[in-house]
Amino acid sequence: MGVMPVSDLSSAAQDYLKLIWSATEWSPAPITVSVMAERLGVRPSTVSDGIKRLAGQGLVTHAPYGSIELTDAGRAHAVAMVRRHRLLETFLVDVLGYSWDEVHDEAEVLEHAVSDTLIERMDRKLGHPTRDPHGDPIPGADGRPSLPEGTRLTATAAGDTVAITRISDADPQMLRYFTELGLAPDTRLTVREHRPYADVTTVRVHEPERDIDLGASASDAIWVVAV
Amino acid sequence: MGVMPVSDLSSAAQDYLKLIWSATEWSPAPITVSVMAERLGVRPSTVSDGIKRLAGQGLVTHAPYGSIELTDAGRAHAVAMVRRHRLLETFLVDVLGYSWDEVHDEAEVLEHAVSDTLIERMDRKLGHPTRDPHGDPIPGADGRPSLPEGTRLTATAAGDTVAITRISDADPQMLRYFTELGLAPDTRLTVREHRPYADVTTVRVHEPERDIDLGASASDAIWVVAV
DNA sequence: CAAATTTGTTCGGTGAGCCTAACAATCGGC
DNA sequence: GCCGATTGTTAGGCTCACCGAACAAATTTG
Question: Does B128 score more than 90 pLDDT?
């Protein structure tokens, strides 16, 4: 009935909340049941179920066939999970020598197991970092939402000179590809052209100076900010 | 039906196996259902249930009302969990500045979440340690059982000079008490006397030279080896 | 705007892991 | 060696998280 204390939420519930929150971090459209099911690797009926449970716990609001929205309590939880995830990724890379394409899955599991104490000790050891290895902002311990900035590379104009703000950590294989190309957060580049029907964006990178062609999925994974 | 692959055992199953194994590490008597229930904080019926499931998976042998024994597969799992637990404790102390009384509970949860890769990276970073912060031996990656040595402090004779091999990590409060007293793995001491009906053992420790009285629970938690 | 398709929900079922209560087997004391 | 206490097991229930199948709502399309 009442609102549950923060600590004991099931692993699945935490995943649901984080996913709902993440969906709205970089684009405003609310998430749907089928998209959630696909991302979580479960059936829509399972998600529908789960959403109902979360609504019962006061973590989301949802009328049947209506949109899914986090309550303040739900959002607080979600942001805490994102903080955990991103601090873990940073820790694995900085302290244990993981490469940035390896950390996502490991953090996905660990984020449900680490205590608040451990998170804060990692944070201190890392010197309170503000961005994770993919460039995503790390929310503060106070649960500050940490609004990210940047636009998709696909939304830039030819001739713009920009710096990479973040690269989506969704696909490890793509991250390895970016590593080969020398693309990472903080890399600067100049947009040469968008070829619309080929869905190719050409960018120029320095040191060494070179042109790189990026397909639609690649340039959708890269977020940039003007410099 | 058949023997399950190592990776996907439930958290509860892993706890059961580890506990069965741990019970025989320092004393030969086989563990009972009620002791397991008490240690795991669940009801005996739950354990009875669980044991039946483990038997069905070929991880333990158990006839109703009979003794509980690990199969080779079960033991391999158990030892792997113990390795995880002890490496995690060592990592938390050495890398993240935990004190030895804080690490047990954290490791208890994390051991179910860390990947084999993460364990091996921690092991490498730590320089392949052989004992955890409490003095317990860390099994190798090959699953070598790592037979510990030592006897309970209560089993020594007055006049013996010994070194502490391990201190049971079961009770954090007791560990804090030992820290205050300056007792830790590798501390040397001389047994002064056992006062049988008072259940007190007096030991002499050097630097600073002093006598310490230990009650039954304390001296049962300390394992020593002759020097 | 009605039919067809897509999307979301409900329903019944499964297994793990827990519970309590009732019952069965074993063990210890005399 | 019997009886009572202790210990272990079975039975029946519960929740969570999943599934597939059937159904209902909403959206797209001709």
Answer: yes
